[in-house]
Amino acid sequence: MASTSADLQGEGDWLVGNPSGGQLASALWIGSVGLLILGLQPVLLGALYTEGHVSGDELALVATAEMIAIAIGSAIVAMLLSAHNMRWKSAVLLLLLALANVWTAYAAGAHTLMAARALAGLAEGGLVAVATELIARSRRAERIGGYFVTMQTLAQCALALVLALYVIPAAGSAGGFLVLAVVCVASLVVAFAVPADYADLPKDENLANVLTVPSITALLSVFCYFMFFGAVWAFLEPLGAQFGIDGRTVGLIVSASLAAQVLGAMTATVFEARIDYRLAIAAIGLAALVASLVLASGPGLTMFWVVALIMGFILLFIVPYQIRLAITADETRTAVLLVPAAQLFGLAIGPVAASLLIDGKEFRPVPEFAAASAVASVALLGLFVLAARRRRAIA
Fold this sequence. Notes:
Elements: H1 21-34, H2 36-50, H3 56-80, H4 86-106, H5 110-135, H6 141-186, H7 188-191, H8 207-210, H9 213-234, H10 236-242, H11 247-271, H12 277-296, H13 301-317, H14 319-329, H15 339-355, H16 365-394
């Protein structure tokens, strides 16, 4: 797929360029490797905590450092680097991530672990951009985005099962991170199936396209929605304990919620073209609000299960519609390249912000904060709609 900045029409389903199905699948897999940690953090970081490598507070800092680094890495690669030599860039990032995972396996102390996971996050963010850069060039970006989240979540589920049942019981957290390093090295074969160069999008104005009211409100809406999920997800186990649900049961609920995420992503790929993105985002925001309020009310085991499954389903169901939101905000598709960064910053900031409201062992403020985040997400969608209408009226 040769880079041609003049060719803005592309062929068929592509705005620019014309990658094959195999090239697209390869790019989506590279991005999925970058996001494996999202589904594996409860298993791997939980093992670090159990083995005494980090305290509870240090564990939160390690997780937050990696999330923020992924967001920064994805934004840097998408916004500041050209989309050329993507095979070699993918290979270098995979090797860097493999080294960071090996460093994590042998790291001693919380500060070293934080540095190792921050380095891993920067590489992971770059790998995410390999996928999102190609998605942004598609006329069916929402559907391909749905394929992307489906692929990554299936990979997370499969690897989480292998680590939890076989690797960590035998080799501990170090074994888990070494397996991640092996996955990175094995994926080098896939890296050289990625398109060598992505055809150029019209990005001459770069940040000027993002620094508009529609783009800012769209990205902030995405950020607030993922703050909702990040806050509740990080404190699901202590919330369950407060309501009399043991840790083993919460672990089962987490696994089921991951499966619900896969179902949500697959469902979105089927229905994304049949539902208006504004209606979908508003309805999912309302569902997030209700789920948060139910959690804050002190639910029993059955309702706790229901809420966790609903949250898992809507988490990835919304992603194709958020992609459409960003594309509508900025037709040059610069803003859509920042959607992963907005999502990851939300996942990182949500737990930190919610933790400031916790009083001792009282965790009810966490879902209350999540409810406020869900409301903010829908309110920002409303501002986006008004700004978009005003822009059209002026034009």
